[in-house]
TrEMBL record:
CDD domains tied to this protein: 4HBT
Organism whose genome encodes this protein: Kingella oralis ATCC 51147
Protein name: Acyl-CoA thioester hydrolase, YbgC/YbaW family
GO molecular function: fatty acyl-CoA hydrolase activity
Family according to the record: Belongs to the 4-hydroxybenzoyl-CoA thioesterase family.
InterPro entries associated with the record: 4-hydroxybenzoyl-CoA_TE, HotDog_dom_sf, YbgC/YbaW
Keywords, comma-separated and alphabetical: Hydrolase
Amino acid sequence: MKKHVYCRHSHELEVPFFDVDAMHIVWHGNYVKYLEVARCAFLAGIGYDYNEMARQGYGWPIVKMDFKYVRPARFGQRIRVDMAIVEIESCLRIDYTIRDAQSGETLTRAATTQAAVSMETGEMQFQTPESWLNAVRRHPTFQAA
């Protein structure tokens, strides 16, 4: 069964020298940062960044993260993080493909799941806050399920 994609977003960046290891490839832990940079760009684009989440009374911690490394990224390489937002109603789940920006070759596949947590009580929310749903619906590529 094919997943529904609520919206898509892409973000490009260049691999900096301080992200590579002794083998001159991106150290595996830095891929987490690339996902976060792309996710922050998406959130800023819908006007619901982490500061706005807090103003609305919610934190959104990562509760699950998966990676599949296909090919290494290297210093100076332009990469594109393609995001597909695949769940918005019970959590925020995003599938990612990190690609070489020029060739489109897949380098890494990943997925993150974030859950809304009340800042006041610390309790996980089992339904996504309406403020979040309204923000996602404003994204230009939004497609209702």
